[in-house]
Amino acid sequence: MSATARGPRAAAPGAPLRGALATGARLGLARRLVIGLPYFWLLLFFLVPFLIVLKISLSTTALRLPPYEPLVTWAADGVMQVKLHWSNFGFVLGDELYRTALLNSIEIAGVSTLICLLIGYPMAYGIARAPSAWRNVLFLLVALPFFTSFLLRVYAWIGLLGRNGPVNDLLLALGLVDQPLQLLQTDFAVYVGMVYSYLPFMVLPLYAAIEKLDLTLLEAAADLGARPVKTFFTVTLPLTKEGIFAGCLLVFIPAVGEFVIPALLGGPDTLMIGRVVWDEFFSNRDWPIASAIAILMLVLLLGFVVLLQRLQSREGRA
Amino acid sequence: MTTDSGAASRDSRPASTEAGRDTYVRIDRVTKKFGAFTAVRQVSLDIRRGEIFCLLGGSGCGKTTLLRMLAGFEQPTEGRLYIDGVDVTDVPPYERPVNMMFQSYALFPHMSVFENVAFGLKQDRVPKAEIRDRVAEMLALVQLQDYGARKPHQLSGGQRQRVALARALAKRPKLLLLDEPLGALDKKLRERTQFELVGIQEKLGVTFVIVTHDQEEAMVLGTRIGVMHAGEILQVGTPTDIYEYPTSRYVADFIGSVNLYEGRIVEDEPDHVRIEVPDMATTVYVDHGIAAPPTAEVAVAIRPEKIHITPYKPLEAENVVRGTIQEIAYLGDNSRYVVRLDTGKVVRVTRPNVYRHDERLAWDDSVWMHWHPSSIVVVTR
To answer: How does pLDDT run across B326-348, given as a tens digit for each residue?
Structure first.
């Protein structure tokens, strides 16, 4: 009885400290979980598939399931054999088709990114400068397409751009053309689809950058004698550069590997690397070559991103 | 001498005789409305060449809006603006011969100090070599010769303020607008910079229009002060005019500390008046006439430092009241007393501590207060 009475009292001075320590430890754990879980998630669903693709890219095709030779085989006497077929990469790099497809993809993605930027910048500027009551509505309108399936929306463009679609109807009605234009299965349709699909990814980071811009800087420029156009190029544009970089990356990278849009809207001569991968995978059943293309693209795009970041941070330091 | 009409002639609103004398900026019946809100109401003001004019007022009084209209960032709803005789009301900011120093400094964060100062000159297509010389000259003026290569974020608050000043002066404007130029600086730095600002202004002969909410700053910097309230200019005058001869209750109360009581004229002669002040339970004697109808409701204002406070009865017969000390604040250079009258009202008195060993007044002491008949300001507005 007396022992139990003394116990808590004796523990009392140290208790708050220990409690604080325990809270600290728990907080630390919570923080580690918050940071750790997404990393674990990424590890599981990005790194593991990547390693599988890397593995396949180092194999050769075979008439079996899955359709490639395993990298690791066990010989009868307990010897482990690892065969790495580096030739896939050499083949992909050496072949004219893949190089053309890749360059074509980069061109289409690059032009699409540029068009997105040219359309997206004024849009983002307009939203950022709109009365705050309007801003949310305009924002919602930009995000609205995401409420429908991407595939459905691309299919919708088939209807819109078809020989009897509304676009041709309008052109005919206005007397701009005598007969329906062949819009589908052209590069034009691919650009339309690309710009349409990726524009929101350009607008959102641009909006964030423009919205942050201090308006008194524009007033200061005007006060010092810069006309609005000059102010835009000397103040607004340099100060929203980060948004431009972010937007361009968000559009360019997925656009290079885009498969659905060129497949549905493009013609037979719209050669894009995404389609080539698809063909290798499903038509040729050449998984190793498809994987090698995927790995090379990843390396290329990573290199591109790193280069851009270098450029940006050097600008920041200068 | 210090008659009310005398004070009015110090008033240099356009109606007064001094109007138009070397006027550089003329603000002619300017009104600015934002929706239903009137930020500036029918303001007319002449600013003279080479002076430092301070627009003084509390937040929301319209002083910044008025300044922004001079810069061209806001369009007046009504009225015209003239700079050096030219109507600039519809001239965009980038074509006005005016530069502004912003409250937030608004330095371009992506440019170096040199590029910031050179920005305005580049817009004018000044030759490169001349830009270099002029920027160097400006940076020397604000004592930042060696900071040209720095970015704004690498500077202290005081240094940024100087860069902003150098940038605004680089184009050699005839008129410089300064929006709370010292607002972001700490007290010590502010005091030093005030005098530097005046020094630079005198050296370059530029006309300054300064917006400030800080009356001390306005007093130190201003050749003349315009006190604004609720979109209107209540009074324009030298710091002395504004402090010693306020023409309205608001100005008397806004500038410095003041004892303000409502009163009634009981004796109205050309050379003196007597005003009954119920709050003080006395009739004050003022040694000058008042240009107001006898029925007008007037207020008497007296500054705390103009009241003498003694423990014994003064010899004077007029302008003497009794009270009890309620609060004492010893500030070193002077002491402030709050004295309660028998009416329950209080009088604030400031007394300089001239001697180290002074007869100290203590809490709850019964004291006498008196003041010179010229010390009372009578305001009718």
So the answer is: 999 988 888 899 999 888 888 99
